[in-house]
């Protein structure tokens, strides 16, 4: 597994801590860190919460590609 860069960027652009997002998901900050870093997987309900939180589709959030618009 690799780090989820799209999620990392979305979280940082929203100026949210890993602890804040972990609380939204109902998991520990340590567990969230493992998931964001790609060492554990998000559940479907967690992924749906993140999608709504950042206004992104699941494909956008969990794609390994980073798209840069000019």
TrEMBL record:
Superkingdom as given in the UniProt entry: Bacteria
Keyword Cell inner membrane: no
Location of the HTH cro/C1-type domain: 7-61
Keywords: DNA-binding
One matching Pfam family: HTH_3
Transmembrane segment boundaries: none
Molecular function as annotated in GO: DNA binding
PANTHER family reported in the protein's UniProt record: DNA-BIDING PHAGE PROTEIN, TRACRIPTIONAL REGULATORY PROTEIN-RELATED-RELATED
Protein name, UniProt field: Helix-turn-helix
